[in-house]
Amino acid sequence: MAEAIITSVVSSLIVSGIMGLIVWFKTKSKESKEEKEKRIMEAELRKEGLVCLMRDRIISLCNECEEKGFASQQMIDNIDKMYQTYHKMGGNGVATASYEKLLKLPHKED
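Above: the chain sequence. Below: its structure as tokens.
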């Protein structure tokens, strides 16, 4: 009889321990999924922020060159790199009109 009680208690402890581990792993994986989604969202927000900053900078620099009436080759190269990156990161055509006007300006050697 004592052996049956011990077996029953040990079995209950083992099952309880296994169930506890299962619950812990599920909770842990759920937290990891939520953390991963948060990191992805934060990365997207940083990307959007960079795209906005590049768009603003491209338009500002193009307007500055347009006011001067010319663009130096160095300025064109810098804006071109930024413009290409802007599009690769998902920037739309908002800065395109400014960029195209820049390319039509007289070029001045550095």
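The two ends are 98 Å apart (CA to CA).
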